[in-house]
């Protein structure tokens, strides 16, 4: 009985010490948050996730130091990571680019004056614009040939893609579209029927069967705008017959950005 009482007392003492330490820590951080112009949002696991500020009508977390200054290094690093993540699901996403013409993309911007990492729409310029434009035209060209099919429209879109970035994929698509258009003219039948499917459509689009749209051996690193895009293609086409991953480390086209 005495042993149980002693153990209970020891546990209580440890808990009290732990709580005291935690309270002391947050007691320093609460006024630090207020001093930095933020509002304390509650004792969470990380101090940097407790201090909230309103910026542009929205609430964001900021990391603060015990002296009440904003930890711009922590906030800036977080912001850079967020911006890179958003870039992967916007700038490099082909279907996103194909949906409509894009001049801006959602991202995160670090405001040095306040230390806030805020979500914002940023202009698509420079290299990013080339990636988006190429993805838009190349994706629409593939759809025009494989889903419609409209070979003349596919050729126009592929040429627009080539004007942005010349790739073997788009030149190959133009040849296939020209072949399809020629066969349509010979058959004098317009779009193919289930009984008459141009060979180029079977090869590129898998029309009439369940094959992939293009054999992986027909592509190379010049057909991709980034290493992430090439690695994603490699994951969808195991076997690497195109030798995109020359050193077999799981990363395709490592010379790409």
3D structure, described in words:
This protein is mainly alpha-helical and 257 residues long. The protein has eight helices and five strands; from the N terminus they run αβββααββααααα. Helix 4 (126-146) packs antiparallel against helix 5 and helix 5 runs antiparallel to helix 6 (168-187).
Task: Tell me the layout of helices and strands.
Layout: H1 2-35, E1 39-40, E2 51-55, E3 58-61, H2 72-88, H3 94-99, E4 104-111, E5 116-123, H4 126-146, H5 151-164, H6 168-187, H7 199-205, H8 227-236
Antiparallel strand pairs: 1-2, 2-3, 4-5
Helix pairs in contact: 4-5, 5-6, 6-7
Global geometry: elongated
| Secondary structure tally, helices | 8
Instruction: Tell me the fraction of residues in β-strands, as a range.
Output: 5-15%
Number of strands: 5
Rounded to the nearest angstrom, the radius of gyration is 28 Å
Strand order of the largest sheet: 1-2-3
Helix content: 40-55%
How far apart the termini lie comes to: 69 Å
Kindly report the average pLDDT value.
74
Derived structural class: mainly alpha
Q: In sequence order, what are the helices and strands, one letter per element?
A: HEEEHHEEHHHHH
Enumerate the spans where pLDDT stays under 50 for 5 or more consecutive residues. Answer: 1-23, 209-217
Largest sheet: 3 strands, antiparallel
